[in-house]
Every structure is written in structure tokens, then in C-alpha cells.
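Deliverable D5.2: sample structural annotation.
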Amino acid sequence: MYLAEGDPYKETMEDGIVRSITTGLSQRGVRDHNERLLLSLIQRHGAMPASDLARRAYLSPPTVSSITRKLEAEGLLKRGEPVRGKVGKPSTPMQLDPEGAFSFGLKIGRRSAELVLIDFVGALRQERHITFARPVPDDIFAFVADATSQIIAALTAKQVDRICGLGVAAAFEMWNARGSDRSEEFASWSGLDLAQILHERTGLPVSLLNDATAACHSEHTHGRGREFRDYAYFFIGAYIGGGVVLDNSVFEGRQGNAGALGSLRSIGPNGESMQLVEMASIRQLEQRLQEVDLDPQQLWTNPESWRNLSRYVDQWIGVTAQELSKAALSTCSVIDFEAVLIDGAFPDFVRTELVQRVQRYVTTQDTRGLIPPKIEAGSIGRRARSIGAATRLIGAQFMFAAPMSSIDEST
């Protein structure tokens, strides 16, 4: 693997929540600044010849040629088809080699768990998925161990050697139940060292991050987030969360909890102070279905059920859109975001209707002192959290981690 063998170590944030387990990085796994820069440029802008890379990176053509030859020899870049211009020799674009690296991504949610394997360009290679009424740690750990073993067994030796590890997207406080959920159903998650346990179960280096932040990474790297420099991101799962992108980089914050947009304050139906998570999550739709003796589990197991339950779904969309319109403007009162992107664990037609309603509701809000942002749909959907966890792991090893404003301008 890209991570050399060695004694694992822990990296723990101040609050003891965010942990990663990995092994010592070999020289092959440590990319220097210019290598990361070129890989990041190609990831963001697509295949391009060395001359364009040199111009965007402010590096000399000989330097870029030397680096791209090295990356090509390592299997991270490959040559595209030559492109003929009007004059001169044809140019050969360099592009990421999909076989250059692989990463597992795991989403642990309160209603489902999902494991994916993506390649170096973010394409989905394998997926495993389970749903449940409540998450039981031992069941999920067994699912991950079995699924990773099955997927690895189907890979070539070369592909296995290029697995970066396992990125895990999970709520930081799974045990901190919301609303009418009973806290005892999630109490078994309190105190668990997910990174250590999953490392022991899979043998892979493990990196843990907030699930909504992971979704934001996915949207920013592979989705419509590439179109905007600064934006707020809402992801609606069983519980709503969010992310923040500043200067073309996902901002995770000091403790990895930046963009905790589900905690924004809202006003409940009786005038009481509530959090957005209690007003604009799929959990509210689940509760409504339970009230009329319908099984809410179908929302997670059968996407078509969202159409069949239109009587309840439409009402939920209306309330959620109103809350999101207020939350969108609240976030822009702190940072002058260009856009607000909305995505979630629901079918595309639900996302489209939800975004359109938020767009309409924003125009009716009091925007004095604010520049209303563009309200746009995300593009990744249900898999955003697992893909984002895997994407971040690849990015940490190969891409440019600093804000990309200096490398994102065409010159």
C-alpha cells in the first residue's frame, strides 16, 4: 500500500473526538509541494498539456516536464490522446490515471451504513450498503470487515497495493440523540474509538471526519461545488448537517466541526427556540409516517416510495424549504457566500423540488443588509458522505491541501 508498514499512531484533536490511525509514510507516499500542485490542477481542471500546467502553476516548462514524467512513471498520471492545433506540434494532455490510487469510504448513519471503493479520479468501483432501524456497533463493524474483505479479494495485487486506506464519515456524537429519538438506542456508541476498532477489523489505515463535512468534500471535488469559490453546503440525511467552502477549499475548522449548520437556531411551531436539525431533517418525515402507521424504513430501502408517499413528502418539502431559506440567509450574514448548495439522501426529483422551493422562499425573506446567495442543487446525492470520506483520504496523500486561489486562476 502507499502507506508503509510501521507502528500505528493516533492523531487526536483537542476535544478527543477526531482521530486517525495510520502508519509511517514512505517516501513514495509523501508528495512534495509541486507534485501535489500539479495533481490538484489536473483533478480540478481536467487533462491538460504540460505547457498549460506550467502557466497555471507558475513553474518553468522543464520543471513541469520533469515532475509529470516522474508522476507518470509512478502510475499517477497518464498521457491522453495528442491534440493538434492550427500550428506547431500536437500537444499531449496529462491526466490522472484512474488506477493510480484507491480508497475506501464508509458512511455510518443512524439509518444506514455504506461502504464504497473509489479510484484516483473519484469513480465508484464497488459499493456495499445496509439499512437498519438503529445502528448497532458490532453489526456495522462486522459489515465493514466482511465487505472490505470481499472487495479486496476481487482486486488485482497491484490495485491492492495502491489502496490508501479507509475514510470514515460519521456523526461526531452518534449517541447524542435528537428530538424524540430515544438516547438509549445510540448510547452504545459513546466512548467508542471508531478509528482504532475499524483499523483492527480491516487492517487498513483509518481516518475519521464529520459526515456532513465528508459530503461537502465529495461535492467540492467531484460535483457542482467546483463551480463556486465560496459557498455553504447543506446535506439532509436522517439529520441535517452542513459544510463550508472558503477560497476553493473545504474549511473543516479547529476541531473538524466547522459548518455545523444543523445547529442553527430556528423557531418551532409554538414559538419555542429549536435547532434547524429538529425542523429540516428526514427524521421529521419519518415521524409523520409513523403517526399514520406507515413504515418509515421504506424511505431508505425503496427510493420509489418517495413518489408513492407524495401526500406526506410534499408537505415535508414545504416545511423544510422554508427552514432552509431562513438558514441560508443566516449563514450569509456571517460570510458573504456566493452560493448555497443543497443535497441529501433522497431521490433526485425530491432534491429538485426542494431547491426550487427554497429559491422561491428566499425571495420573500427580509434580506436587508445581505446579498442573497445563489441557491443551487448539489449533484452527488446519497453516496456523498461515503465518497467524500474516501476522497479526503486520497486528497490528503496526493493533492494540494492549502487554499487553491493562487492556482485556480487562468493566466
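Annotation notes: The two ends are 37 Å apart (CA to CA). DSSP finds 13 helices and 16 strands in the chain.
The annotation will be released with the project's public dataset once the embargo ends.
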